[in-house]
Amino acid sequence: MTTPTSHALDQAISLQMTAPNRFGGHCDETYLNMVGPFGGMTAATLLNAALLHPERLGDPVSLTVNFAGPVGLGDFEIEATPLRTNRSTQHWLLLLRQNGEVMTSATAFFASRRETWSEQAAECPPAPAVDELPRMERNERAWFRHYDMRYISGMFKPGEAEETHDSLLWVRDEPPRPLDFAALTAIGDIFAPRIFSRRQRFTPAGTVCMTHYFHASLDDLQRTGSDFLLGQAGASRYHHNYADQIAHLWAADGTLLLTSTQVAYFKE
Fold first, then answer.
1. 256 FRET partner, CA 20 to 30 A, in 157, 170, 180, 191?
2. What gap in Å lies between CA 92 and CA 12, rounded to an integer?
C-alpha cells in the first residue's frame, strides 16, 4: 500500500475511495506532458487503485495500460474491479473516467509470490558511476522536473546527439523517494519515444499501449531504497505510423526490477 506523503508523486497518485470499487482523484499540472499528464503517472495512478483496494491480494506482476484518450486537468474517477481472485493470484480491470467517458483502461495481474528456483538471464549493461554524469536539464515539460536523469547514451538532443535506437541512463525521483511499485511503474515510462532518438528531431508521437512486467519483490524495492535505477530502452521497428519499445530497469546492484514493452504512434 502506498502511504501518502508530501512528495509530488504521492500527491499525483492520491486517491480516495468513494464507493465499492470506485476511487476519486485529481489531475493537475505537476506531471504535465505534451497532451495531458505524463503517461507513467497515469499508469501509476491506475495501479494505485488496485494497491489501495481492500480486496487486494499480493503484489503486482504485470500491468497493461491502454491510453485511449488524454486525461484532462481536473477530477477523475477510477473503477477498480477484481475480476477473479484465486488462492494466490488476482486479476484486475481498471478504468479511468472523466466526464463519463473512459480515457484510460488497464488490466493488472497480482500474485502472492513464493520462494522458488531463481535465475536472472539478462545481464545488466555496464555504466559509469552516477556522479560522473551531468544531470539532464530540460524545462519544456513539467514532469521532467520530478526526475533526476543522467544520460550515458541515446539522449534526445536535436542537432547534437547521435542518431540511435537505444538509450541508457541513470534515473530516480526528484527529490529522492523510496522506491515502491507505483514509483517503479512511473519510472518505467520515462524514456522518450524511440523515434526521437532515432531521428534526433521532434516528431509528434505518443504511447498507445504499455505493459510492465514486475520482477521486483518487496525486498528488492526496500534494498534499492531511493537509489538511482539504470534504465535501458531500444526499438525493433518503425512502420506505418507505429513503433515499439522494449525497456528494462535495473537496481544499482544489477538486479532486474522491471521489463516494459510498449507501442507508440508517430506522425511525419
1. 157
2. 22
